[in-house]
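Re: the request from the purification team.
They wanted to know what the chain is likely to look like in 3D before they choose a buffer screen. I agreed to run a prediction and write the result into the notebook, where they can find it.
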Amino acid sequence: MGMGENPGATDGKKYSLNDMVRTGCNDCRGCSACCQGMGSSVVLSPKDIYHLTAGLGSSFQELMADKIELQVADGIILPNLRMDGENEQCVFLNAQGRCSIHAFRPDICRIFPLGRCYEEDRIHYIYLVNGCKKPGRTKVKVRKWIDTPDVQKDEEFLIKWHRFQKEARAAAQKNTGCNKPVEQAKTVSMKLLKRFYLTPYDTNRDFYQQFHQRLGQGYEELE
């Protein structure tokens, strides 16, 4: 980002799936700026792990060796894509500057330079005006840009996952029967990681069904 730019700045609008937004970038040809210097911002959801393990034929533990890492995100531990090398580029960026996992890339990458805004039981999309460096961008319908099969089912998952993370953060901050709040946060995080990430998904079965089953168990563990 250039000096004085705010990478999270938006145009102040909220977009729906059927709105047009200037995201068309000619398939990113000749540009990989958004795959570099992103730090730990590409946080991975359970659905991302499901697709990565299926697409790469690797387990979560194997990905932890050199492809993903753990970070503390607002009080709970979550995985994110690693950035390596002098340019801090995504580990999945190949020698030609192209994404080697494009077909099953994480959700944050898929919708960029859009972001999501959660309001109760609704999702709005926001446009990160300093996100994409590709000149001459064209307008594309949001629904087409995010390119997500069964987007309504996907948004239902996203809303429920977002809500669960809020509950997990609240549980991590409680000191009920525990004199060590750091230990409490660690306990909640380890249960979350085991339930939604470490325990393998059956990649031959529908992800959403497996997630909803785990979600009920996850809430029980927070009590």
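For the purification team: The chain is about 35% helix and 15% strand.
Please add any questions underneath this entry.
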